[in-house]
Records
---
Amino acid sequence: MSARQPAARRGRDRKAELLRPTPGRNRFERDDAPSVAVVGGGIAGLAAATLLAERGARVTLYEQQESLGGRLAGWRTRLADGSETTMSRGFHAFFRQYYNLRGLLRRTDPALDRLRPLPDYPLRHSGGMTDSFARVPRTPPFSALGFVALSPTFGWRDLTAMDARAALPLLDVRVPHVHERFDSMSATRFLESVRFPEAAHHLAFEVFSRSFFADPRELSAAELLLMFHIYFLGSSEGLLFDVPTEPFPQALWNPLGDYVQRHGTDIRTGTPVREVHADDDRGVEVRTDTAAHRYDAAVLALDPGALRGLVDASPGLGTPVWREDVATLRTAPPFLVSRLWLDRPVRADRPGFLGTSGYDGLDNISVLERYEGEAARWASRTGGSVVELHGYAVAAGTPQEAAQNRLLDSLRRIYPETRPARVVDARHEWRADCPHFPVGSHARRPTVRTPHPRVTLAGDAIRCDLPVALMERAATTGLLAAGALLADWGVRGQALWTVPRAGRSPVLRALGKLARH
C-alpha cells in the first residue's frame, strides 16, 4: 500500500512513496516480548535491532568486529607524528534519497545536524572534461535537460545521435520489471546499444557502476538503470549529498548504539556467530565460540561472504534450493582505500569530493578537512591536508604496493600541488566484502524472507523489490526483516519511504511504454 504525506517527513520530493506496514498493536507487552538475535552490526543489523527494540522485543546484537558500523565502522590509530585519529574504510555519500537510512539516523539526530551538505559532485575525466551537478535542476525531466545543457561531455548533438528507442527504458524504470527485462545484459552492453557518447559513458555511468565496486562489463544493466532512476530521472532529490561532520563512530554509530541499548538491546561486539540452527517449533539457536543461545527468532544481516560461510556452517538451515541460492551470492572484486596525511595543504579550491575516470584505477579523491571535523583539526594544527583515494574493482593479481603507488601517482597528476608534499603517514585498507550484481543474478538473489518463518535476512546484497541501492538498501532490508517478524507476531512494523516505483512523469511513462512493445 502506498500514499503520499507531507514533504517534511521524507525530503523535498512530493512524489516519494510511502509504504505502510501491516497493521498491528504498537508494541509487545513486557510479559510476551520475544527474544531476537540480530547477527551483524552494520547498517542493516542496526536498522533491524532499532525497530525490534523500539517495539519491545528483547534484542541481542552480535558483531564480529570490536565496533559497530559494518563497512562504515571506524577505529582509532596513532600516526607517525603522535596524533590519534580515526581510520575507516573510506568516504560514503549520504544522498537525500536515502529516506530510510536518514530516518534511522534521526533517532539520535532529529535535524541531521551531524550531516553536512557538500556543494557539488564534480566528475573529472582524464581527457580534461569535468561535469558538475551543482547547477543542474533537481526535478525530472529538467534534471536531464539541464545536464545536457551544462555538460561538456554530453551535448545536444550527442543527444540526437543516440538510439532514442533503445534509450526509452531509462524514462520509465519500474521495479521489479526492470530486472525481469534487463538483468540478462551488462551495463556496458546497454550503454553501447543506446550509443551514449564515450566521454559521458565514462563519467556519469561508469561512476555509477563503479559505486557497486564492479566492472561495468560485468554489472547487470538492470542495476545501472535502477541507479539512474533513483538518482536522476525518478527522483527530484538530485545528485548532491551529505557527509558526516565527524568520523563514522562519533557521528553515527556510537549514538545509535547508545540508543538501542537504552531500549534494552544487549550489544556483543567482538563476538562472531559460527552457526545458526532453526527449528520452527522451538525457535533459533545461535552458536558463538563460547556458547549456544536460544532465541525466538533471528535476523542475519551479513555481507555476502559472511552469509555464505554462516549458512555453509549451519547444515540444517533452509532448504537445499535456498542454500544453493545463498551459495551463488557473489562478492565484488577487491577495492583499495588509501588515506594520506600530507605535510602541506591541497589548493583551497579543491572540492571535498571528486569522482574521477580514466586515471589508472583511481575512482575518487576526498579532501577530508573540507567536511570532517577531526581531519580539519589535524590540518589546522599541522598546516597539512588529509586526502583519501579510492580504487574500486582492482584487477585480480595486482600487487598491492603497485596499486597503492598508482593511486598516489594519479593524485599528483590531478592535484599537482601534492607532488612536493611529504606523506606524514598513510593507511591502506584492502577489502573484498561488497556484494556483486553480475548479469543474470537477480532471480536467485535471496529475499528478506527465508524458508524458516523465524529467520530473516537483511543487507545490501539481499533482493528488495523497491527502488533502493547501496546503504539505503541495507537500511531498508533491515527494517523489512524486522517488520516481517513483527507482522507474524501481530505487532506493527515501520512505514518506509522510497522514490517512485515507476517513472514519475506521465509523459515519460508514455514514452517508456513504447520500449515495452
Note: The domain at 2-70+247-330+446-498 is CATH 3.50.50.60 (FAD/NAD(P)-binding domain).
---
Amino acid sequence: MPEAPYGPHQGFTVPPMPSGPPPAPPNALRAAAVAVLNLSGLGIGYALLRRWGPVALCLAATVVLLVIALPADADGLPTGVLVGYLVVLLLAAAHGARLGLRTPLSLQAPLALLLGLVLLAVPAGGALWYDGARAEAEQRALLGRLEKADDLVAAAGRHTFATSRADYRSALAAYRDLAVDHPGSRAADRVPARLRAYYASVGAAYGRGEYCGAVEPLRFLRTVPRTMPADRLGTLTHWPDDRLATSLYECGKADLGDGGEAWTDRFRELLADFPGSPAAAKVVPAVDAAVRSAQQGVGGKAPCTAVDRLHTLDTRLTDLAASAGNAATDLTAAAARAGKGGDAGAYECGVNQYKDGDFAAARKSMQSYVSDTKSGGKRDRAQKIAIAAEVAQTLPAAGKKLPTTASGGSISVTVKNDSPHDITVLYTGPVTGSFTLKACGGCTAYALTETLRVGFKPCSDSGRNYPRRTIQLPTGTTYFVHQPQGTGAGAPASDTAKIRPGYVYTECAYTTRTFGSGI
C-alpha cells in the first residue's frame, strides 16, 4: 500500500472549520442603515443582520406602546411610557449600528439605508396620526363637559332658582373654563349659544310674569360678566338690566298694593341701580296712587285701617326719599300728603272706634286729631268725643251716643272738691265738657267705714271754702266721672245724674281711704 503523501508521521494536522463568515471590513454606511432601520420600531435592521432575538424585543416594545396608547384619549400618552419607548429605539439604533459596522447584510447597504429612511415615515406618520386622534379625543372630552353643563342647566330649570342656584353656578363655571382655557375648541365655540339658553333658564320666572321670583335670579345674572369674557357674552352683558328694573317695580308695586313692607327695598334698589329706566319713572305715580287710595279709605268702612296705612306710608316714603336721588322731592311731597291725610283721618277713625265701643282707642285717636289739627270745625267735636270716651271707659252707658258740640242749659249743677287732690271732672250727656278743681286745703281722705255711716255727707263743713264750679246743663241724663290727679290719687269715681227742671244739683268729689291705706 503506498504511503500517503501527508500523514501524522510527517507532522501536519487539518485546521477546524470557522463558526461563521469572517468579519467584514468596517462599513459606516452599513452601520447607519441598520441604525435607521431600527428607528422604525420594527427591528428590521436586526432582521437584515439575522438577529431574531432583538427583532422580537423591538416588536414587543412597539406592541406594548400601541396597547397603552390606543385608543387615543385627551390626556395622551404618559410621559414615562413615551420616554421609555424612545430610549428603547435609541438603544436599538446604537446597538444595531455597532453590529452592522462589521456584519454583512442580506441587502446592499445603500438600498438598506434608503429603505430605513422610507420606513422612518412609519413612526413619524404614527405620531402625527396619534396627535390628531388625541386632539379629537380632547375635543370630544370638552364637548362632553359642555353637555354635562347643559344637563345641569336643564335640570335646574325644572326647580326654583333658590333650589338650583348651586347647579347654575357649576354650569357657569364649566362654560367659563371652556371659554377661557380652551378658546379654540369646538366646545368653546358653542358656549355663546349655550349662554343664551342659560340666561333664558335662569330668568324664566320673568318670562312667566313672576316678578318677585325673578328678582334674585336676575341679580345673579348681572354678576356673570365679572368672570365671563365679554366677547362670549355679547349682548347678554346687559340682558338682565331692563328685566330686573321691571321686576323690581312690579314686585314693589304689588307689595305696596297689598300693604306689605318689602316695597321700599324694591323701589330703593330700582331708584339706585336704574335711575333713568322707564320702570324707575313709574315709582312716584305708584306711591301717589297708594296715598290717594288710603285717603279714600278713610271715608270707607275701615277708616282706622286707612289711617294706619297713611301713617305707615308717611314713614316709609320719608325713609325712601332719603336715598331716592332725583325722585326725592316728589317722594317727600307724597309722604307729606300721607302724613296729613293720616292726621285728618284720625277723626273718622275715632268716631268708628267710639261706635264700636272701643272707648280707649277712640279717646287716643281724638286726642291725636286735636293735637295734630290746629283749627277746623271737627276739632271742637273731637275734643268732646275724647271726653265722652274717657267717661264711657268708666260708665259704658255714657257711650251709647256720640256727643254733640252743644253747650249750656237751664239747670245749675255745682261740683265741689272735698279732696286733698286736684280733681278733673268729666261729664257727658246732652252736653259734654270737663274742668279741673284745685285740691281742697286741709281736706283729707275719708275712712271707708266713715263713708258707710248713716247720714254721711261730704262737702258739708260750713267752715271750709271748698273749691267749686257751677255749670249749666239741660234736662236729661248726664254721666260724671271725677278723676283724681297726681301720684297715688286713686281710681276715678263716677255718678249718673238725671237732671230735671226745678231742682238745684250739687256734686261732691271726695277720696276714700280703704283698708291697707289705699285711696
Note: The mean pLDDT is 84.
---
Amino acid sequence: MRTRPQPSAPNCSPLAAALPSGAPASRRDWLAWAGAASLAPLLPGCGGSGSSPAPLFTATMAWGRNAIRQAMQAGPNQPKTRAASVALLQGDRLVWQEAFGVLDEASGTPATTETRFNVGSVSKVIAALAVMVLVDRQLVALDAPVVRYLPGFSMLSPGYRDITVRHLLSHASGLPGTYLHNVFTFTPLQGYAAELEAALADIHLKHAPGAMAVYCNDGFTLVERVVQAVTGQSYPAFVQSALLNPLGMARSGYTLAPLPPGSFAPGHIRDVPQGQEFMMGYATGGLCTTPGDMMKLAALLLRGGELDGQRIVSKAGVREMASAQNQGVRVNLPADWHWGLGWDTTRHPGLEAAGVEAWQKSGGTMFYSSDFYVLPQAGLALLLTGSSPGFKPGPVAEGILLRALQESGQLRTLPPPLPLAPPPHATVSSAAVGALLGVYGSSRAPLKATSPDGQQIDLCAWSAQRGAWVDRCQSLRLRTDGWWWSDANPATQYRWEQADGRRYLLMRERATAGHYLVTTPAGQQMPPAPGPLPPAWTARLPSTWQVVSEGPQSIPMALDMGTSALKELPDLPGYLFWDDSQFLLPLSADRAGMAVQVPLDAGRDLVELVATTRDKQEWLHAGGWVYARKD
C-alpha cells in the first residue's frame, strides 16, 4: 500500500518487521510495514523453478536471478523472504517466469511459478480498470459525485458531497486513509467496505476534495461500494466476470475463502509459518495472484484494452488511467510527480531518466511486497513479488527492466550513477532562516528544524523509542541550486516551499538505483495552536491505550501492534500527539481532529480521536479501532 519508489534512506520509519523478536509494535509501525512495498532487502532463495531461458534476455535473467536472491537475503532483525516470483513480458511473449525459495522450510517444498502471492496495492490497478469498464458502459462518470451512486454516504464535513469517483481513484478524496478494523485477518470476513462507509458518517475530511493527492486506501474501498451500487454485484464478483475470466487469469482472485495448502506462499511471524493472509479491502489491496497471471493483465494494457481480439476496456479508458492526475490540485508537491488512476506514477522517474515511459504500482501487505510495471512504448511489463513485508522489489525490478531495454536494443547503455557534489553556498538572511524553523508534522514521526547561528539549519526527528528528539541531518546550508545540503551527508537534500498558505519541507534523495533523484514532501510546518488543551483532554495526558476491538483472527494483534500513546509535546503545546506520529487539535471535549495536510505518503493514514464512556470506562476510537486505557 505504497505510493512511490523509495530511496535507500536512513530516515525511513522503522519497520515493525525490523523490531527485535518479541518487541511490541504500534499502529504507526504497522502502517509503515503494511504500506511499504519495498523498504529493506532480505534472504536468498533456496533453489527455484522456472521456464527454460529464452534466447533473448539471457543476460537480463542472469542479472535478475542474482539480484532477486540478494534481495531475499536477511538483514539484522529483519524477517526472512522465503519465496519470491517474477515474470517478464515482451510484446506477445512471456519471456521469463521463475520462482525462488521455498514454501515450507521443514519439507523444503519449493515455490513454483503457480504459487500465489498477495500483491497488496497492485490491486488498485484492477480497481481503476474495473471503473473504466463501467465508464465504457455509461454506468459511472469519473467526475460525477460519489453521492450520485451512494445516496446514503455522508461525513461530518459538508465537503464530502464534492468527492468524485476520480478523486477516489487518484487519492484526492480527502478521506482519512486506512480503516483498520479487520482489514488484515487469518480468516475471511465479510462487510469491510460497508462498515467503512458507515463509519465515515462520524468522521471529518482531512482536506478538501481535490486539494491535493494523499495516498488513501479508503478511497479505493469506497470504489467497491460504487461498483456494487451500479452493477448489483459484489466488487469481487464484478471483477471476476468483467476482467479476470475474460483475461484467463485462472490463478487470480480475492481472498474470499481459504486456498488449498501449498498453493500460496505463507507469511511468517518470528520465523513461525502462519496461515493464509486475508486482506478485506479488496479494491485497495486484496488481489491474490501469480506474476504469470498479471502478465495477461499487462498484455491487455499494452494493447490498449484489447486482448486476443476481444475488447475488454476502451483505449480511452486505458489512456485515462495513465494520464497525470496532478493538474488542478492546489498543493502539487512535488510538481514533477505524475500519478494516475490506480497507478502510483505514470512516468516512473527511474525509467524516465533513461528516456522510457513506464507506469508503475507497488503493493505491500503484512506478509508480502510487490512491484508492477508496464512500459507501453517499449512493449515490456514485469511483476516481482516476495513473501515478506521487508522484501525490496523496486530496485531489482528497475534493474531488470533497464537491462531488458538494453538487451533488446531499446537502450544504448545503462544510465550512470548521479554524482553527489554540493553546489556553492548561497546567501540567505537570518530572518529567512528563522521563518523555516519549528516543528513539521506528518503522519510519521515529526521533524524539528533549529539553527545555531541564523545561517545553517539542523534537523532532528522524534524518536518514539527514546521519547526525545534525535539528530537527523546537521549543518544544512542553502546552495545555489535552491536546496539545503550538508557537507557531512550530501546524499539527502532539503527544500522549503509554500503552497495553499502552508509551508512544506521537501526531501530529495538519490534513489537506490543511483541514477535519479526522488523528491518527497517530508512534513508541514505546524502553526501555534489556537490555545491550550482543554481540561478534558489534559486529564487524559499522558496515557497509553490498547486496542480491544480486534479478535484473535487479527494479524496486527498477532504482531503485538495494538498499543498507542497520547501525550503533548512541549515543543508544540496545544496539540495532542498520538501514536508518536500525528498531531491533532481538539474539536470538543471528546473529539480531536486531523491537523496536518501533507501530499503523497507523508500525510496518509491520519485518524480522528473520539472519546466515549460506557460502564464508567472511557474508550478512544481511532481509524476503526477501539482502544481501552492501559494506565
Note: Confidence is low (pLDDT under 50) at residues 1-27, 32-55.
---
Amino acid sequence: MPSTLYFNGTILTMDAQNSSTEAVLTEGDRIQAVGTEADLRARRPADSQEHDLQGHTLMPAFIDPHGHFPDPGFIRLFRVDLSPPPLGDCRQMAQALDRLREKASATPEGDWVMGVSFDNTSILEGRMPTRAELDDVSRRHPIWVIHASGHNGAANSLALERRGVNRQTPDPEGGRFGRDPETGALTGLIDGLSAMGEMGDTDFLINRERFWQGFDACRDEYLAHGVTYAQNAWTSQAMLEHFASLPADQDPGIDIELLPVGNLEPELTTHWIDPNWPGNPHFTLGPRKLFTDGAFQLQTAYLSAPYFRPTDPDHPCGMVYTSQKQLDADVSKLHGSGLQIHCHCNGDAGAEMFIDAVEKALHAHPRTDHRHTIIHGQALRDDQLERMAQLGLTVSFFPAHVYFWGDRHYDTFLGPERAARISPAASAERCGVRYTIHNDASVTPTRPIHLAHCAVNRTTASGRVLGEDQKISVLSALRAQTIDAAWQVFKEDQRGSIEPGKVADFAVLSRNPLHAPERLTDTRVLETIRNGQSVFAAPHAEQEIEHI
C-alpha cells in the first residue's frame, strides 16, 4: 500500500483541539500519522511519495450533511433548468415557457417534459405557471414544472391526467390541488409532497441507465468542490434499488449516506433488506426521514405567527404536512426501533411538533445519544434550542437561504426581526446545540466554501447583512461541514478530521480560509483527495474563481 507525505502548507486537522500540524503521512486509504515534517520523514517508508502543498491549505474533505445526490446530475442531463439569477437567467414567465416549448419540440410525443428550479418569488410575474400556459406549450406532452424548493409544482392537463387528478379529486392531508376560486377548475398547481406523489420524488422519470448517468455527473461536480461524502436525504424504495444495483466490488468514486423515507419502516428493515444491504461499502443506510412542513418560498413552512406579508389568507402561518398524532406515532416507531431520525422542519411551529414528538418518544423509550436531527430549522427560537439541548437533539441549518432568499425573508416572508434570526447558528452555539450547515442540493448547489461564507458573513444577494449576532466563525462553518457533519450521522470515528486511522479524504484549498473571513469566496478547491488518491485537480492555478 503506497504511502504519501503531505507537507509545506497549512494543515487544518479539525480535531477536538482544532490543531494545525506540519505534515500528514498516509498509507493506502488511511491516515497513518500527523506531526512535524522531520518526524514523519524519519518514519515514512523508503518508497513513499511526496505531496508538496506549495504553501496551500490542506483540510479534511467536505461532508454534505443534507442533500439529494444525485439530483443535480439529473437536472443537468435530463431536465429543463429554469433557475433565476443568481444561479441562472430565467427572469420572466415567457423565458420559462419558451425553454419548455423548445424541449417539447425535441421530445417524442407522449413523453414527459420536466422543468426544474422554477422560483415564483424571483420571476417577474411572481407566480407559478398555470395549466393553461403549460397546455399552450404542448397538449401532446405531459409537462411538469417543479419549484426550486421541491415542495410544489405546476402541471398541464395531460400531466394532471397522468397523475390521476381531476376537479373531483379531494385534497390529501398535507397537500392541495390548486383550484379556481370561482369555477373550481384545476389551475395546475400542486402543493405539498402528499399531493405531488411520485412527481415530487427526485427520481421521477429516472430509469437505471439515467440514474447512473446522473450519478456520474453529480459525483464529478461534488468532487470539484472538495466533497467526498454526500447524502441522498429522501431515498425512496426505487432509489434504494438503483443504489443497490452497483456490484459490491465496484467503487462509485464517492461515498453516500442514504436516508430512507420514514414510512418504508418497519417493512424496510424487517422484510426488504438483509443485514448486509446495500452490499457496496461506499453506500451506507443512515437516519430515516420525516417531514412536518413545507418551504418558505411557498409560504408553506409552518410558523407560530403569520408570515410578514401572507399570500394565502386561509393559511397565514403556512401549512402543516402531518398531524401531531401521526408524527408522534412515526417518531415513536422509528425511535423505539433504535433508528435515527432526520426531520424536515422549516418553520418554528413545524419544529415544535418534532421536538414534542421526540420528548414523548424519549419518555416512553429512554435512549441516550440518539442524535435525532432537525433539518433546516430556519426559524428556531432560543427556547426551542434550549429544549433541544436538554433532549439531545441536533440541527442542520440552511444558511444558503441568507444569500439566495434573504432579501425576500426580510421584506416578504418573515419580516426584518425574524429574518435576522434565520438559521440561528450562533444561538445554537450559545445554547449548546451541535449543528451542521448544508446546501440541500439541488435547492442550492453544493458549494461548501460559499455556504461557509453565507453562515459567516450573512450577506444577502443585495449585500444586506442579515443578523449580525447570528454570524459564526469560519472555523465553526468548516467544522459544520467536516467533523460535526461526520458526528451528526455517527461517522466521527471514520472521517471528518485529519487524525490517525481515519479515511484519507482531503481538500487542498488555494488559501487559508481562516484568514480574512470577508474573503472566503476568494478561496477555491485546487485538489480533492479521496481514499489517498487524487480524484480532482483544478485545471490551472490562474483559473477564474467560482463564487457560487
Note: The chain has a mean pLDDT of 95.
